[in-house]
Amino acid sequence: MSQPRLTVLAGPTAVGKGTVSTYIRDNYPEVWLSVSATTRPPRPGEVDGVHYFFLSSEEFDQLVDEGQLLEWAVVHGRNRYGTLRRTVQAAMDEGRRVLLEIDLQGARQVKESMPDATFVFLAPPSWEEMVRRLVGRGTETPEEQQQRLETAKLELAAEPEFNHTVVNDTVEHAADELVSLMGLLPLQR
Ligand code: 5GP
Of 14, 83, 175, 188, which is least surrounded by CB within 10 A? Predict the structure, then answer.
């Protein structure tokens, strides 16, 4: 079945996927941004149901067992993240333009089940810039940062699997390009 209204944004760790999707949530109400389930604890300022649905491991198990996740993955070898099938389907049925911001493993799963979706790779301007952003965020321990860089190297090699690449030089530019690929007009600034 054709699912032309679904767009998947993926890319390496710390490339700024979260920043781009936050910008889109704040500036493009036409885009329905999926809220993922995760077993990761909330960071300061994160709100349950807005940034993620923060679940216990048991609650996440239940979603998996009941087949309620369109895709899910263990990210950085630590926590589980997944997309709720029902809410995404409902938004698509309503004719909304749906955006998933997920990791590469998740994007591959969606490609299996919904090959007609649009797959967009968010690329860093350079490797050095990506390292700077990751370290600069300061929310992870040095061990976690190292783990994320290892993951990022593997993820950069996945770019050819995607329909389009958007370079995240500035958040506005990346968001504008992404919404253009979704068939929307970028903001006039
Ligand atoms: P963070 O913990 O920094 O919010 O996110 C870590 C990673 O998890 C990011 O690369 C993000 O794209 C990914 N992620 C967030 N939600 C999902 C999801 O529903 N599924 C998958 N596979 N990855 C996700």
Answer: 188
